[in-house]
Amino acid sequence: MDMNSLLKKASSMLEKARRPLFFFDGDPDGTTSFVMLYKKYGHEGKGHIVKNTPRVEADHLKHVKEFGPDLIVILDKPLVEDEFLEGVKGIKVLWVDHHPVQDSRHTLYINPRLFDPDDNRPTAYWAYLLANDHNMLWLAMTGITGDWHYIPELADEFRKKFPKLLPKKIRKQPDALYGSGIGLLARMLSFTLKGSGKDAMTSVKILTRIEDPYEVLEQTTPQGRFLSKKFEKINKVYEDHLKQIKVTRNPIIFYKYEDNKMPITRDLCNELVYKHPKKVVFIARVTTTGVQGSISSTKIVLPPIVERLVAKYPEATGGGHDLAVGVHTREIDFSSFLKEFEREIKKELKKK
After folding, report:
1. 108 partner at 20 to 30 Å CA-CA among 201, 226, 275, 286?
2. Beta strand pairing status for 71-75 and 92-96?
3. What is the β-pairing status of strands 108-110 and 20-25?
4. What is the CATH number of the domain that holds 105?
5. pLDDT tens across 151-163, in order?
6. pLDDT digit string (tens) for 162-185?
7. CA gap 309, 349 in Å, rounded
8. Torsional sign, CA 160, 161, 165, 171
């Protein structure tokens, strides 16, 4: 089955569903994917944001039992536990993702890497095609830009509708994220999704009621003002951390902070690797469950390195995109993990 056939079948499943239950990642890509499909198909459905884990886990079965859906939709989550899939047998499952291909038994699985291993266009792009509504283009562009991607044909379409938000001179992702209005909106959304799952879902619900990007960027409605004020509050904390990060001759920019409630490692990584493209950026956050880190590079493929290292440490996990990964270790192991990681990076740089 080719991608067009998969999309057609998925659209049919969504149209027929009366009580869809969405599980979606808590970043701009996953969130905008949910909002687009919810606005088009899911008004009698329900969304559940999945934060702080790459998996839809067996524990999420409780939400299935409570809601009683006739369709489960999984968006932008790279992993789904077998126990979860076994627990929802008898219910149709649509899984839309763009991370490395997984065993997708019992699901209709949409992933561009099924057809081209190098095609990792974000979930928001495929959700936009499924929604088939040009009024949602700004949502798709927010998710795509926030996920460190730039899709030229979609950008050109968006530019015609919102020329002020994506100037003609911007033709690649980093410039879009840090030099345009749609990039600012993507960063604002990322910040408004911080905090507890309950706080994040409040932002998501408000986003479902917003019809155009200027409601947030220019605070033209109460909903837009709410999201903008939440962004400003978190952005102050973010800017304080950014000022503390030192850039030296070391090929790695490293920064560690303690905070159990403010996961801004990915956001810091994105901005620092944009400003210092020759560096590898490693931002770590100490929490009550260990150390969670984000790592970014513009030229070193990171997953093979991270996967080799996490295999050496109990309870360690890690993985993600080629140039951006997440890791988690016990606090007692982190110092050793970091030293090994530095050695591996320096070896890779010698090969360049």
Report:
1. 201
2. parallel
3. unpaired
4. 3.90.1640.30
5. 999 999 999 999 9
6. 999 999 999 998 899 999 999 999
7. 17
8. negative
